Amino acid sequence: MTLLVVGGSGFLGSELVGRAVAAGHPTAATFATRPGSTGDIAWHALDLRASDRVEAVVAEVAPRVIVNATSGGADWAVTAEGPVRLAMAAAKYGSRLIHVSSDAVFSGTDVHYDETCRPDPLTPYGAAKAAAETGIRLVHADAVIARTSLIIGDDRRSEHVRAVHELAAGSREGVLFTDDIRCPVHVADLAAALLELATADSTGVHHLAGADAMSRHELGTLVARRDGLDAARLPPGLRAGSSLPGGLDIRLDSRATQHRLRTTLRGARRFLAGEA
């Protein structure tokens, strides 16, 4: 299985590349600014806003499976339109596509969301992610949409872990919300699950989030304890009292997908305690 990881130099992408290479899959990857650290694969510069370049990379690599692990924030051209360009190229050249999406496609009105729930985003980022999902399914009916939540790792490559360290050190201003609930997932579990989907000929929508729902403040406290930081230095706050848009309590129900996987999508209480 030849694999192309789009966004391979990013946090999730680099984990995917490392695991794919370790598993013996012929692998190529793309980058936006600089190649990743894995030197024994082909790296391709790619801007998802450039249709011709997207098609050229897919044609050159001729991958069996493409995993799109990019993150363009609220940039509509990158986050909404770019994945559709990629899906069109994948369909043209006979490649399967796994697109990593987000719980931001939901508003939080219903709190619990399984794979049958329809997106109802509140933020520009969520709207861009939802638009990408719709466009991908229109042009590549067999694509996988893999929604996930906050991605946590063992070091500061994770933006959420980095924020905890900076808040604890006093080098960042802000608070961790006690009313903002998500289902964090470990980057290693997420990457392993995505590779399973890549080798299992899966299609449709899948949820790949951790088993524990928790607030960002509780998550930060657990990260601080794991990393030997003073959790008392993490200021709590209420998102409901802030000007930030977005849903408060959004819990991805991943049980249907979990039943199909060998990989366990551990809850944050488990993986931050060092449990396998």
From TrEMBL:
Pfam families according to UniProt: RmlD_sub_bind
Domain RmlD-like substrate binding span(s) in chain numbering: 1-236
Domain of life, per lineage: Bacteria
InterPro entries: NAD(P)-bd_dom_sf (IPR036291), RmlD-like-bd (IPR029903)
SUPFAM superfamilies named among the record's database cross-references: NAD(P)-binding Rossmann-fold domains
Protein name: SDR family oxidoreductase
Organism ancestry: Bacteria, Bacillati, Actinomycetota, Actinomycetes, Kitasatosporales
